[in-house]
Design a protein that fits this description.
Helices cover 50% and strands 7% of the residues. It is built from three helices and two strands; from the N terminus they run αααββ. The two termini are 17 Å apart.
């Protein structure tokens, strides 16, 4: 799941909300909370503003 999230974030030029990422992947946004947290802790993504994520 993390690889798919990273690909979506790298393919866009603007930060996305979890719901937008989920819609692109065709999954429920609740499934993204843990992978997003892990990616952020690993430094692979960042949150430029509250509730938005972008690849680093």
């Amino acid at each position: 799941m993390q690889d798919k999230i990273l690909k979506v974030l790298k393919d866009t030029d603007q930060p996305l909300r979890p719901g937008e990422i989920a819609a692109t992947l065709g999954v429920d946004s609740k499934e993204l909370s843990k992978p997003l947290k892990e990616l952020k802790e690993a430094g692979k993504i960042h949150s430029p503003k509250r509730c938005y994520y972008a690849a680093t």
